[in-house]
Each structure stands twice: as C-alpha cells, then as structure tokens.
Amino acid sequence: MKRQILAIVSALTLAVSANVSFAGDAAAGKAKAITCVGCHGAAGVSAIPTFPNLAGQKEAYLAKQLKDFKSGSRKDPTMNSMSAPLSDADIANLAAYYAGLK
C-alpha cells in the first residue's frame, strides 16, 4: 500500500512539473513570430480558414501545442518542421506573445 501511494504521488508530481512553465518574453516572441505570419497572420489572426488564429489563446495551451508538434506527438508536416528548431525559451516566448494579442 505504501509503495502504491508513493508511486501515485511520484506520478502526480511528474505530471504537474511537466506542465509548469515559466512566462516567456513577449517581445522576444514577437521577433521570433516573423516566420509564423504567413499562415497565422501578422496579428495572430489568420486570413486563411484552414490555419488557426493564435491571438488570445491561453499561453499554456500554445506552449503545449508547440511542444507536441516539436516532439511529433501532434502531427502536421508544416508545424512539425517549423517547431523542430525551437528551443524551450523560443516556445515560451512565442506562447507569451500570441497569448498577449487580442
């Protein structure tokens, strides 16, 4: 029983720590977002219906999606290749930038 509780606590701690993210630098994200403009629009609002709007999305959501594209757990050929070179800081910065747009 004690071993099971320890395993559950360890799993929960890992799950929570995996989702903890430090706020990114929106100004750095804006500079990095130049490559996103073609599909997602200059202000994070896409003119193309098949590409999602990023402006105003929750920061944690945006960061998770970019991390999932980068890891390959979310599949999209364009986004997988666009996210591949991003560092964790780049992802946090982009998420902060787009989350701050309305």
**Class of secondary structure makeup:** mainly alpha
CATH architecture: Orthogonal Bundle
- Following the backbone from N to C, one meets helices and strands in this order, namely HHHHHH
Percent range for β-strand residues: under 5%
Main sheet record: none
User: What share of residues is helical?
Assistant: 55-70%
Number of helices: 6
**How would you state the average pLDDT, rounded?**
88
What is the count of β-strands?
A: 0
Write down the CATH class: Mainly Alpha
Unreliable parts? 16-21
CATH superfamily: Cytochrome c-like domain
Domain module count: 1
Principal-axes geometry comes out as globular
Ends distance: 50 Å
CATH fold descriptor: Cytochrome Bc1 Complex, Chain D, domain 2
* Radius of gyration, CA atoms, in whole angstroms: 16 Å
What would you say this structure looks like, in words?
It contains six helices and no strands. Residues 16-21 have low confidence and may be disordered. It has a single domain (23-100), classed as Orthogonal Bundle (Cytochrome Bc1 Complex, Chain D, domain 2), CATH 1.10.760.10. By secondary structure, the chain is mostly helical.
Short summary:
It is built from six helices and no strands.
List the helices and strands and how they pair.
Blueprint: H1 2-19, H2 26-32, H3 37-40, H4 59-71, H5 77-83, H6 88-100
